[in-house]
Amino acid sequence: MQNVIISDTDSVYIGLGSILKHMQSQGIKINDINKNEIILKITDQIQTESNNNLNTIVRESFNINPKKHYFQLKQEVIAKGILVTGKRRYAMYITNKEGVAVEELDMKGLELMKSNMNKRFKKFGEQLIKDVLFGKDKIEIDQTIIDFYKLVKTLDPKELGKPTGVKQIASYKIPARAGEMFSTFKTKAPSNTKAAVRYNDLLKFRKLDKQYESIIEGDKIFIINLKPNMYKLETIGLPNAKVPDEIEKFVKTYIDVDEIFESLLLNKLKELYKDLKWDFPPLNANITKFFNL
Question: Concatenated DSSP letters for 121-140?
Fold first, then answer.
């Protein structure tokens, strides 16, 4: 069991590093070109021996004819690197799947890759996981995070917003009364509904609702967190469609980059560092003062 890295209900992942090193000590040349071919030969032997052992178990322990049971162990993937942070929480870089060369990043249970990530953050997260898997030095990874945080400050709001769909606007919206700027909402209105309605209200207030499309149910939007502003809006939803210059300027002026970075990425990075038993690098006074890192 010392070579078993991950095991769950129907699969087991075995580390072959010690076997490969032994083979090299015996004069067998192993490199990036032939490594997977050699591993497949090893796993073929492991697969054969494991299934023979399984046949013995079902015959001796359960009195089942080995030719009639449905249990079979089969090699599936080869991973160049595996990161395990807990039960059902791991990442692996797969280079071979069922005998076919591939390059895939497979992750289970890692907070860093949850579906509420925008494309920019998700791409950064994937590369960060690869850096950890391939043994990049912590100091370099720390600097990568610091540099990305600086880059985030310069990005377009839509690249930073939380992507989501819009549902049930009519179910929760209470139209603004005469003389009021913004609509109100029924209890438990979803955050995406509120963000979409705030955008539509601002369009109408600026008398731009005839020139630009309002957000409707079924649309995709990007939720943007805002700093304190003259409209007292905490968030606003931006559509995929063209946004009026006036609203775009407002969003760029009041977008709360630190809040977005914290809610969508920072806490997930912090959790990964905790799993790795690493100290998280200070980004700047504004973002780290909230945490005991």
Answer: HHHHHHHHHHHHHTT--HHH
| pLDDT of amino acid 114 | 67
Dihedral angle of Cα 257, 140, 116, 251, to the nearest 10 degrees: 20
Q: Report CA 217 to chain centroid distance, whole Å.
A: 26
pLDDT value of position 1: 54
Place of tokens 């075995």: 14
Phi, psi of 4 (to 5 degrees): -80, 120
Which residue intervals of the chain are DSSP H helices?
17-25, 35-62, 119-133, 138-152, 157-160, 169-172, 191-205, 245-254, 257-261, 267-276, 285-288
| Number of CB atoms found within 10 A of residue 122's CB | 18
- H or E, element range at 2: none
Q: Is the pTM of this model over 0.85?
A: no
Judge residue 67's burial from the number of C-beta atoms within 10 Å of its C-beta, 0-12 exposed, 13-18 middle, 19 or more buried: exposed
| CB within 8 Å of 251: residues ≥ 6 apart | 157, 224, 226, 236, 238, 243
Which pLDDT band holds residue 115 (cuts at 50, 70, 90)?
low
Q: What is the DSSP letter of 227?
A: -
Name the nearest CA neighbour of 99 among 81, 123, 82, 75. Answer: 75
- What is the distance between the terminal CA atoms of the chain, rounded to a whole angstrom? 35
What does the pLDDT read at residue 92? 87
Lowest mean pLDDT among 4-18, 159-173, 260-274: 4-18
Rounded CA-CA distance 232/180 in Å is: 13
Average pLDDT, integer, range 205-225: 94
The Cβ of residue 170 has, within 10 Å, a number of other Cβ atoms equal to: 9
